[in-house]
Specification:
Helix content of chain B: over 70%
Structural class of chain A: alpha/beta
Distance between the termini of chain A: 46 Å
Strand content of chain B: under 5%
Number of helices of chain A: 11
Low-confidence stretches of chain A: none
Order of helices and strands of chain B: HHHHHHHHHHHHH
Largest sheet of chain B: none
Largest sheet of chain A: 6 strands, mixed
Number of strands of chain B: 0
Low-confidence stretches of chain B: 1-6, 8-13, 301-308
Mean pLDDT of chain A: 82
Oligomer: heterodimer
Distance between the termini of chain B: 17 Å
Helix content of chain A: 25-40%
Shape of chain A: globular
Chain lengths: 286, 308
């Protein structure tokens, strides 16, 4: 996966809309960002801000219809994924851009053993691997599953949420992707498991040197891992910059509001702050 | 994550698949378990009947159940003929046994046409939606709008009467129910996260449809098969009774059709025997089918899965 080009991913003016009976919904409204190999970008925003659609659009996974790709470019390793044929796209998905999703319990197929789910990820893109079982075991060990050999015969419902997410990560890593898109990887998990999974992602990033695009609504998990942060609000990136700058000197009223929502240990507050959209719009002078 | 090695070894030693859970659930239903034994006995009789048929066929002799004895016409039940004889003196028990063979052959051969047809069309309609869905809905609505007995009779006139006509007729008519069920399941499953995950891994549409979703809806096929089985048998009986069914072989429908003409003579054993043979098989299949539906119900399964 050597890439002399200094940018891995360059999204320019991407626009995606959903056309419903109520009219056009601009899910992604002209966003641009870029990622270098090995970089971690956190995309933060509330529900419906378009962050998941952006992530899925990278390999054109948003079904169309109802979605329409209205414009822009997604240059991944020098090629525009929006212009690839379905066949070429399938070779990008999983092999070069991998995904892990929010709900590990439903993202694994309930009727297959862990072994065959990981084996499929390997077989889809790496036909040269002879001993698929050994490779699956190596991946499971890599994501921190003990007794991987014994665990491979398990069905998804026999695993805890954290272990299911580890299996999902193992599947995503099966083909050494250069970009891992983690779409709210910890939202369905409880706090201690969240920490473990984030720790694992950080460790894998150092070990494997892949870029990670971390989609989340939770500012508190990004500080540790992200190099850059993009804050999305209503389909637009309203703030984009290095993590420390965004966290400590937020420019945009929405970013400030989001940061104020984080409950702090020891702070004496009786009410949690909520985001008032009218206030933000007033601050923006609309 | 903190499971000890011994703990996880114990877990691994007790595989808990979809089917083993369903089997435990099924066995809890005593009546269904008893009915399963009845079906096993019928399968045994069926295999025996096949052997009788094929030995006679290979040796090129008249099979024993077709041997007539005009001195013993319409004989009452006795030690020699447990259920008496019919109007040409053939043994009724031997004929009933062949009836099992005909019933199983028809049910299995019809299913071999119906299940792939219904499953594939249902899967295509549910998975791809849009115009594919519309076309398939249109197709099965048309098939369904004609009374099935009439279509089966017309198909059997086209392809030839007898076994072939019944099998092809039923196969081409009865797939609608399965198709509807499978379509609904696919509509539901294509929205599931695991399908999105498979797509994100780079799996194509056909792979997702047949490799990922199909195993999740396969239980529908099994349930449909057990519930359709009695319908096949009954349809065969009705068709044979109407005179467009099996000819030259002793199916239950043929026996009932023949026996009705001698009922006024007080010859009840032929009719009674055929009806009873059919009754027990159909009843057992229905009960097992219902129990299977309960055992394989996804909702019950998740409830039990989270309890363990």
């Amino acid at each position: 996966m050597e890439n002399t080009n200094q940018t891995l991913l360059d999204v320019r003016d991407l626009r995606i809309s959903f056309f419903t009976d109520e009219g056009e919904v601009r899910a992604v409204d002209g966003i641009s960002f870029s990622m270098k190999p090995g970089e971690t970008l956190a995309v933060v925003g509330e529900s419906g801000s378009g962050k998941s659609v952006t992530a899925m659009a990278l390999t054109r996974l948003v079904p169309s219809p109802p979605a329409r790709y209205l414009g822009g470019e997604i240059i991944f390793k020098g090629r525009d994924t929006l212009k690839l044929s379905p066949e070429e796209l399938r070779r990008v998905r999983g092999a070069q851009i991998s995904y892990i999703f929010q709900e590990p319990s439903t993202s694994l197929n309930p009727v297959f053993q862990i072994r065959s789910q990981i084996a499929e990820a390997i077989e889809l893109h790496r036909r040269d691997v002879k001993d698929v079982d050994a490779e699956a075991e190596r991946l499971l060990t890599l994501v921190g599953i003990r007794d991987a050999r014994l665990r491979m015969g398990d069905y998804p419902h026999q695993l805890s949420g954290g272990m299911q997410q580890r299996v999902m990560i193992a599947m995503a890593l099966a083909c050494n992707p250069s970009l891992l898109v983690a779409d709210e990887p910890t939202t369905a998990l409880d706090v201690t498991i969240q920490a473990q999974i984030m720790e694992l992602l950080k460790e894998l990033k150092q070990k494997l040197g892949m870029a990670i695009m971390l989609i989340t609504h939770n500012f508190s998990i990004v500080a540790d891992i992200a190099d850059n942060i993009a804050v999305m609000f209503r389909g637009k990136i309203v703030e984009y910059g290095p993590t420390q700058r965004v966290l400590h000197e937020p420019q945009h009223p929405y970013t400030k509001a989001l940061l104020e929502c984080i409950p702090r240990l020891g702070a004496h507050k009786h009410r949690l702050k909520t985001i008032n959209h009218a206030e933000i719009e007033a601050a923006l002078g609309r | 994550m903190t499971a000890t090695a011994a703990n996880s070894a114990a877990l691994a030693a007790k595989p808990q698949t979809l089917w083993s859970t369903a089997w435990r659930q099924f066995r809890r239903n005593r009546l269904a378990a008893a009915c399963l034994w009845i079906i096993v006995i019928y399968v045994g009789i069926w295999l025996y009947a096949e052997s009788v048929y094929w030995t006679a066929y290979l040796r090129d002799v008249v099979p024993s159940y077709k041997v007539t004895d005009f001195d013993a016409r319409n004989a009452a039940p006795s030690l020699r003929h447990w259920l008496g004889t019919d109007f040409t003196g053939r043994d009724n028990v031997a004929q009933l046994i062949q009836g099992v063979r005909i019933a199983f052959e028809i049910a299995i051969l019809s299913s071999a046409i119906l299940i792939p047809l219904g499953f594939l069309l249902g899967a295509l309609a549910g998975y791809f939606g849009r115009w594919v869905d519309n076309a398939i809905i249109w197709l099965y609505s048309v098939v369904d709008s004609v009374p099935s007995i009439l279509s089966i009779i017309s198909i059997s006139y086209v392809v030839g009467r007898g076994m072939k006509g019944i099998v092809i007729g039923m196969g081409l008519v009865a797939w609608v129910g399965l198709c509807r069920l499978i379509r609904g399941e696919y509509l539901k499953h294509k929205q599931r996260a695991y399908v999105a995950a498979a797509r994100a891994l780079g799996a194509g549409h056909l792979t997702v449809m047949l490799r990922h979703i199909a195993p999740n809806v396969l239980h529908i096929v099994i349930i449909t098969f057990t519930l359709l089985f009695p319908r096949f048998i009954l349809t065969e009986v009705i068709l044979s009774y109407l005179g467009v069914g099996i000819a030259n072989e002793p199916s239950w429908g043929v026996m009932i059709n023949d026996a009705k003409q001698r009922l006024w003579l007080g010859v009840w054993w032929e009719l009674g025997g055929a009806t009873a043979a059919m009754f027990f098989l159909v009843l057992a299949l229905n009960i097992v089918g219902d129990a299977l539906r309960d055992a394989l119900d996804p909702k019950l399964k998740t409830a039990e899965g989270s309890a363990t």
